[in-house]
Amino acid sequence: MSATVTLAEKPTLTGKLVLLRPVGVADLPGLTELVTDPEVRRLTGSHASFDVKALEWWYATRAEHDDRLDLAIVERATGEYVGEVVLNELDRNNLSCSFRIALIGARAFGRGLGTEATRLILGHAFETVGLNRVTLEVYDFNPRARHVYEKAGFVHEGTQRQALRWEDAWVDAHSMAVLADEWVEHRGHPAVRG
After folding, report:
1. Which of 17, 45, 73, 90 is the most buried (most CB within 10 A)?
2. 29 by DSSP, 3-state: which?
3. How far apart are CA 83 and CA 70, in angstroms?
4. Which segments in the chain show pLDDT lower than 50?
5. Do the domain assignments include residue 191?
């Protein structure tokens, strides 16, 4: 089975609040806002600076990859790009991958958009792709995200002490994972229903 596990299919996933669809060059204004938002940069520990041409190339080439899935998070009520969700670092032999999500600051936080996007992408990872394990890292100063991940079934597996240097302070990173059988238990839980 492991030889056939792929992220080549770039689906559109629909929930009540959000639509997840393949990213494209048309999403460049939203991506630019995302990667330059000071709060998003802090929560994701992003020190890198980005230029528009590099961002344009990035979104233009995501469909070519069978080892990652980059989907735009679009708020259904407004049709606006509000972030992205990504499955990457696919390990076909071990049926696992990494997960990350980023939402554009204040206009997307606290409204259930990230919770639903997380639920949708995990459903795809486990039920369609056939993965057994999805992992992530979350920084200690992002308890809101950690709470969302726990609601979706992620379990804390360890702490990488002082993994990030941010504004002259050391920040721990927490490793979390959810397994396919744990997802089955959480997918119907009221806290993760769309």
Report:
1. 73
2. helix
3. 11
4. 1-2, 189-194
5. no
